[in-house]
Amino acid sequence: MTYTADKPPLPETVEQLKARIPGWGADLDPADRPAVPRERFDPAASGAHWDFPERQPETYPRERSIEHAMLTPVFGTSCPPKGLSGVIRRYSYARFSEGRAAHWLLLIAADRVDSLEGVVSSIASGRPDLPFRETGLRGEVSAHGIASRRGQGRVDNVHQPLDALVVAGPWVLGVGAAVAAVRAVRRRARA
Fold it and tell me: pTM for this structure?
C-alpha cells in the first residue's frame, strides 16, 4: 500500500516487465547498484512510530490525483481552491492524469485566473493594487537600487530587468484591452 513501508506487489512478474519494458530492472541486482552495500531496507531506522501515518482531517473536499486511490495522509490547507480558478483546478484533478499535459496546462490557466480574480477582488474591496508601487521603480530611484547591485556579483541581476515587465506587463495589456473594448463599443454605438 502507498504511504506504508511495505513494498507494493508488482502487477506483473519480473520476467514480464523485462520483456515488455526495455531496460526495466537494470538495477534489480543489488550488485549493480552504486549505493550497495550502504543501501539497506530498514523501515525501523526512520524513527517513525506508525505503520500508516495518522490521516489529517479533510475539512473540505481536496483535489486528489486520479492515480491515487485516496487523499494523501497530509495535505496543504493554506490556499483552498475558490472561485472559477478552483473549479478549473478541481476539473484538472478529476479528469486528467498527472502524466498528461492537459492536467498541468489547466493548473497554469487556473493560476492565471486566480491572479485575475485577485485583481478584481482588490478593486471590489475599494483598495485596488498599486501596480506602479509593486514594480519597485520608486525604490530603484530613492533607495540606491541600481548602485546597490552594481559590482556586487549578485545572481539576481540577470532577471531584474524582467521584473518590472512581469509585474507591469499584465496591467499594460489590461489597460490596452480596456481601451480597445471602449473604442469598439463607441464605434458600434455610432454605427
Answer: 0.60
